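User: Teach me something about this protein's shape.
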Amino acid sequence: MPNSPQHRDAETVVESINVNINSKRPEVSLAEPAIEDPVLAPYHRTMEEIEKMPVIERTMTVCPECKLIVNGVIYKDGENVMIRKFCPEHQWTIEKYWEDYDMYMKMRRYNYFGRGFDNPNYITETKGANCPFDCGMCERHKSHTGLANVVITNRCHLSCWYCFFYAKEGEPIYEPNIDEIRKIFRNLRSQKPIPANAIQITGGEPTMHPQIIDVVKAAKEEGFDQIQLNTTGINIALNPEMAYQLRHAGVSTLYMSFDGVSKRANPKNHWEAPMTLDAIRKAGSTVVLVPTVIRTINEHELGAMINFAINNIDVVRAVNFQPVSLVGRMPTRLREKQRISIPGAIKLIEEQTNGVIRKEHWFSVPYVGGINKFIEALTGEFKYDLSIHFACGAGCYLFVDPDGKIVPITEFVDAAGMLEHLQKAVNEMEGKSKLMRRAIAVKTLLGINKFIDKKKQPKSVNFAKLLMSVLLKHDFASMGTFQMKTLFLGMMHFQDEYTYDIHRVEKCDIHYAMPDGEVLPFCTFNVFPEVYRDKVQKQYSIPSKEWEKTHNNWSYGKDKYVRNVKELEAMPLYQKTYGAMTDYFALAVNGGKPVKNFANVASAPKKEVMVETTKGAVTLNAAEAKNESEDSCGCGKSGGCSDKGAEAESGDSCGCGGGSCGC
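Assistant: First, the predicted structure itself:
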C-alpha cells in the first residue's frame, strides 16, 4: 500500500455517487416506521406479523434505489432469515437473506474479527462511518487481503447476461500494460502486517491480454505464493500449449467458469470444457470449477456438477459455487424467482446427491480461523487468515475412496470438538516460551485422534497424520498435499443492493486492487461500480475508437467467439467426457455398483438446429429452438419467454433480467 495514506472527505464521496449519503453514521434505532403496505413484504406478510418476528441482529445497509445508508434489521421468518430496511423516500425493502435459520445460527458460532491493515490506503474524516462509500481500504476494515483480484482487461470473447463486468460495444477498453500491473502487485505485497499472498488474475477474459504469460511471471517474481487465473478456458481449449505456458509461468490453478453439465445449463463453455480439462491434465496443472448458481436456470444440476468434478478428480481440485448476486435494479417478483442463497444451494445438493452430502457436512469459512489461531500461538507470528463474515461462505471437503465411496470430512471428524480442543491449547500457550509452546502443540495434536471416527474414515486416509503435517508445517505445500487427497466444495455468495449488510463488507477478505492504489472489498467494487470500478477504470481506459486505431483495426465483433457445435460434439473427447461418466451418488443407493452416464448429455441425438445468440452458436433440439430464437438477450432460458409477468415488470420478454432485449 502507499506509504502516505490519502485522505478522502465525505463531500467528495457524496459527489461521486450523486446521492445523499449520511455525513455521520446514523445510530441504529429500535423504533421503525410502520409497514403500511403489506404487498411490499414477500410471502404476503402483514405489518403486524413482521413486527412480531424475532430480531437476530441489527446492521447498516443501503437503499437499493438511492443508495442512502439506512438501518437494517436481520430477523427470523419461519425457516428463513430476512433483512428489512426503510428509506424515507423509497420506503420498505424486504429481502431473503438466508434460506435456513438453523444453519445460519450454526455458522454464526464461528464469527470473529480478523486482522485489518496497519497501513490503510485511506484515512477518512469519518473513521469509515460512511461505509461502503469511503472504501479504499480504510481504517475500519477488519480483515487483511485473503485473495486479491487484479483485472488485467475488460475485453471478453463472450457476453454472458449475468456477468459483473466486461466491455460492451462502444465502451472504453481497460487493459493495463505489464509495468502498470506490476505496480498493482507491489502495492498488494506492501500490505501490513500480512502482505497479500494469494492473487487471482481476472477480467474480462484475462487470456485475451497479449502479455498474459508475462503478467503471471511478474506475479511470481513479486512474491505471490498462490496465483489463480480466472477464465472460461476457451482460449486454452483452442490453444492447449497455453496450459503449459501458464503452469510454467507460475499459475497455481485455473479458476474456470462452469455453470452446468448440460449444454442448456452451461452455454458458456459446455463444448470446450472437455478440451480445456484435457489440456490442463496434459500440462500437469489443476482447475477449480466455478458455477454461478441461478434459480430456474441451473440449480437442478448442482449434484451433476459435483459428480462431473469427481469423474475428473485427477485435475479438478474444487467446485466453488457462487449463488448469483442480483446487482442492478430488478422487480421483486423476478428477484424471488432467481435468488438462491448458500443454504438453498446446500439443500439442493443434499437432494441431488441422494443424501451423501448433507447440510450438516458444511462449515462456515471462518471456522478455519480457529486452526489459524493455533498456528499463530505456536509460532508467535501473524499468519494468513480467513476472517470473512460467516454468512459470506461455506465449505465441505470430500474424500473419494478407490472403491468410489464419497465421504465428507465431517462424517468422520468431530469438527466442533476438535476446534474446542485446539482453542484450549491456544489459551494454554499464551505467554509461554517457544519450547513450551511446541510441547503443548505436540501434546494437543497427539490428542486429535479422539475426534476422528476410524470406522468411518476412508481406508486410504490417515487424517490425523495429514492434519499434524498441516498444523506443524503451516505452509501452502502442506495444504496442497491435503487438497490433493480431497475435493473441496465451496460456496461464496456475494452481495447486492437488496441484501447489503455492512457488517459483511467490513470483514470482506476478497479484494480488488486498482491502478490508482485503492484496494476494495468485492462487494463494494462490483455492487457500486459507478463509485469505484467503472469510475477508476475509466480513468485508465482507452476509448474504443482510439483502441481500434492502435490495435490493428480491432473491433468489438472480432473479439467474440463463435463455435461450431456440430464439429465439437462429433469429437471423441467430447463424447467420452460427457457420455462415459460414473454416477458416484447412485453408488449409495445401488449396492455400490457403478452407474454409467450420469446426466448424460451426449445421448441419442435429437433433431437439432443452429441458433446464433450473443454467446455464439448453440445447438438445440427443435422444441428448444423456438424459445431460444426469441431470446435476443442470450439468456439461454427456454421457458422464460412465456413468463408474461416478468415481461410486464421488466420489459424483458424472456424474463432474464438483463441483456439486449430491452431489459
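Now, about its shape. Confidence is low (pLDDT under 50) at residues 1-31, 35-41, 598-663. The chain has 25 helices and 21 strands. If you'd like, I can walk through any region in more detail.
User: That's plenty for now, thanks!
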